[in-house]
Each structure stands twice: as C-alpha cells, then as structure tokens.
Design goal:
The chain has 175 residues and is α+β, with helices and mostly antiparallel strands. Helices cover 61% and strands 15% of the residues. Strand 4 and strand 5 form a beta hairpin.
C-alpha cells in the first residue's frame, strides 16, 4: 500500500504534468494487457508524450490544486492519461492510430486543451488536422503564389523583348 508521501509525490507529478502540457487525453484502458500498455507507452514515449494510468482521487487532487474543478470531474472510472508537451495534433493521431491498427478496445474518454475540456469527438477532429509543418508550408505557398505571379507578369515583356532581339541576332548572323 502506498504511503502518504508516495501519494503526495504522485499528486505533485500529476499537477506538474497537467500544468505544463499542451494537451491531455483521457482514455479508458480496460481490457488492455500489460504488454499492450507497454507497447502504447513506447509509441507515445518515442515522440515525447507521457502516458500513465492514474488514480482518480489523486488526479482530482492535482486538478483541484491547479484550480481546475471542471477537469477534476472528468476523472472517473479507469483512466489513462496521455500528456503531450509539443504539438496538439500528435497525441490524438498516435492514440487513435494505435486503437485502429491494434484493433484495441481502448476508448478515448475526452481531454483538455489549455483551459478547455474536449470531448472524444473533439479529440478525433484534432487527429485529422494536418501537422504544424504542413500548415506552415500551405501558408507559405499561399503567400508566395501571388508574388510569383506578379514577378512572372513583370518579367514577361522583358523576356519577350529578349527573345525578339535574339531572333534578330540569329537572323543577322545567318545573312
């Protein structure tokens, strides 16, 4: 049985994780074997996402300490918590991909993004968003498109004149 100090340490870890993460996703892990949980933790850990099974009471204490009573209400039933610290899109993608490819009975219960609670549908919608890099590339292409068109339009008369002059040079050389 865990001592009071051990529980206080877990609460501190949860509080720090919830406070510092960009996104948190709550899962129902019932029916997963230890091997499956280890595999999931490895996949998530490879991209910097922490996954842990949490005791609801301890998670509620951590949420209450952060002033997140709305979040404290979400912790009920068996809960696994995935905390993402870099991108908001990656954790939902990896979790849902794992559920789909492994045909796991794991389900997404919901989550949180900053101060906003998310439903399972919100998590699914986030997983379908393109990554930050793809969005930046699309934005840059959108910004560059009109500039490239303008340069081509401004360059067209000069290029036409150059072709006419070159044709005249070729004609004079042929005489």
């Amino acid at each position: 049985m865990a001592t009071r100090e051990d529980k206080a340490k877990v609460i501190d870890q949860l509080e720090e994780g919830i406070a510092n993460c960009n996104i948190g996703i709550l899962t129902d892990y019932r029916g997963l074997s230890n091997h499956e949980l280890t595999e999931l933790r490895r996949k998530l850990g490879d991209v910097g996402i922490k996954y842990r099974v949490v005791k609801n009471t301890l998670a509620r204490f951590a949420a209450e300490r952060l002033g997140r009573s709305d979040l404290a209400e979400v912790f009920n039933g068996p809960v696994g918590l995935a905390l993402g610290f870099d991108t908001v899109v990656e954790p939902p993608k990896i979790l849902l991909d794992y559920i789909k490819t492994s045909k796991s009975i794991m389900t997404i219960k919901g989550g949180f993004l900053d101060d906003t609670l998310l439903t399972a549908e919100d998590i699914t919608a986030l997983s379908k968003m393109p990554s930050r890099e793809v969005l930046i590339a699309k934005l840059m292409g959108t910004i560059q498109g009109p500039i490239v068109s303008l340069v081509n339009c401004l360059n067209a008369p000069i290029a036409g004149l150059a072709r006419v002059l070159q044709a005249r040079v070729n004609q004079l050389e042929g005489e």
